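To: structure subgroup
Subject: Chain for Friday's discussion

All,

I'm putting the inputs and outputs inline so they're searchable in the archive.
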Amino acid sequence: MSTERTELSELGEFGLIDHLTKNIELQNVSSLLGVGDDAAVIDHFGKQTVITTDLLLEGVHFDLMYTPLKHLGYKSVVVNLSDVYAMNATPTQITLSIGISNRFSLEALDEFYEGVYTACGHYGVDLVGGDTTTSQKGLVISITAIGEVAPDKFVKRSTAKKGDLLCVSGDLGAAYVGLLFLEREKKIFLESPKVQPDLEGETYVIGRLLKPEARKDIIEFFAESSVMPTAMMDISDGLSSEILHICKDSQLGCVLYEDKIPVADETRNAAFKFEIDPTACALSGGEDYELLFTVPQSDYEKINSNPAISIIGYMADAGEGAHIITKGGSRHEITAQGWNPIR
């Protein structure tokens, strides 16, 4: 491991931008002009354009004590692409702006960008612009993702219909349990720095927190199977609050079955170590970046044939409210206890 440290002040802003963007190769035909001019130029050839932005702040959205910079770069891109996929669109470009303090060296920044470029390569997205500036304190990351979708094929949160099946991709609650392990080890480390972290072989849940993936495969499956979800969003704040968004925006109620909520065995076992309920992790945890969507009942066979998708309930009249039916058969109102960024 090289211990070299290059101060960012040695390069200056333009030297830094040149350094960080020198190896960019554009992958999408729609990226006509990328980094290097005053603005990028994109042509989506008759498709509709989807745009989303995320702001990530050190100490609020990530903790550098246990987040490797390469993972942070990767995750920063992925969480943004997830919002594009949640519209049933394909991400094509991103812009990335960062605010950095002088505690970061050029080598540290290279690591961050290595993660960014890995994610761009994996999802076939071009980095076409951005900005760098000095931050007085902490690392600030802002990413805008741009995607394309065939005319009027984008999917909103407000268009679910009564009787639609409520579905989710992947499994839930893992990232939250991963966070519990890392926070616990951080606390121990701060109290006794000589103690080596013990993550107890929990690679799955920790991986789901530090290196999430966006569900490109589900959007591709919809296209291949001619499935058009009636409503969709990604799960960043926990299943319960996202379900309530769809209910509120679509003016519907829903019934969710606890025993249908997909939770990985690794998550279940890890949750038990903290003596917490795995269902609670799935409902309130957040940061899973799975897709929550509704489809007409006529799509049941197609959806059911995909092992990466679980049917977890159905949409009902607004008057019925949003309820979860527990494994024991009792019925409870769904409450939003997900992560609230404004608190």
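Points worth raising on Friday:
The longest strand covers residues 90-100.
Residues 47 and 198 are 50 Å apart (CA to CA).

D.
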